[in-house]
Amino acid sequence: MTATVAARARIAAEPDGRGGTALPVLSGAGPLALRRTRDTGGAAHVVLIGSMAAPLGGDRLALSAELADGAALTVTSAAATISLPGPGPAHYDVELTVGAGARLDWRPEPVVAASGSHLILHTRITLAAGARLRYREEQVLGRHHDWTRGAAPGRLTSRITVRRADRLLLDQQTDLGPGAPGWDGPAVLGGHRTTGQLLTVGHPPPPPPTAGDAALLTLPDPDATLLTAAAPDALALRRLLDEPRVP
């Protein structure tokens, strides 16, 4: 029987009193290793490093980041997160809390659903009034060699819930891959194998995209926007989401 893993990693950020950000809590666990790197613009920079193959089916992983008022944090990852098959779906919960006047830039590498896997991902974001956020999410169905050998991709079930000052700003769920209704039809991916979004809150609204299968939506608050995109591969998706359109 394949052993499963349960692990929770935590980040806590607060102003250090010198114009920067301190990290009183930086706690990795299991496959979720956390490393602080060089700060930029007063923001602490944390890199998520996969210290073992995960998530495998049956794993339960959780990652939380809590920013005190006035803190600034950037979170990236060293590599893509690859969902692998195992005994049942894997679960990955992300909890982000951003205080008043704090800013969070969340842009890890893509989540890749390998053939035979099923990952259930839920991201919950709580923003105080005056918090600022940039949140990038990228999903890739199947590894390259899955597609070259004609294997079906894995499945990704993803939900993101965002609240700002106790008001629901966004609650969205997608279900992609074998077993999800209509996932590869024209109303969903339309033949593409990657999808992603860039959520910005507390920043000037970016101009709408001018190319590719992308759309810019304005959320209930005028300074909150959601750029969604679908593309044939991860590189094309990154170009759609990372074009210099966000001030």
Computed CA radius of gyration, to the nearest angstrom: 18 Å
Question: How much is the average pLDDT?
Answer: 90
Oligomer: single chain
How much of the sequence lies in strands comes to: over 45%
User: How does the overall form come out from the CA principal axes?
Assistant: globular
Low-confidence sequence ranges: none
Helix proportion range: under 10%
Distance between the termini: 50 Å
What's the tally of helices?
Answer: 2
Order of helices and strands: EEEEEEEEEEEEHEEEEEH
Structure, described:
The chain is built from 2 helices and 17 strands. It is mostly beta strands. Strands 3, 4, 6, 7, 9, 10, 12, 15, 16 and 17 form a 10-stranded mixed β-sheet that branches. Strands 2-1-5-8-11-13-14 form a 7-stranded mixed β-sheet, with no helix packed on it. β13 (155-164) and β14 (167-176) form a beta hairpin. The chain is globular. The N and C termini lie far apart (50 Å).
Walk me through the topology.
Elements: E1 6-15, E2 21-27, E3 32-40, E4 43-50, E5 60-67, E6 72-77, E7 81-83, E8 90-98, E9 103-106, E10 111-113, E11 118-127, E12 132-141, H1 144-148, E13 155-164, E14 167-176, E15 194-201, E16 213-218, E17 224-231, H2 234-242
Parallel strand pairs: 1-5, 4-6, 5-8, 6-9, 7-10, 8-11, 9-12, 10-12, 11-13
Antiparallel strand pairs: 1-2, 3-4, 12-15, 13-14, 15-17, 16-17
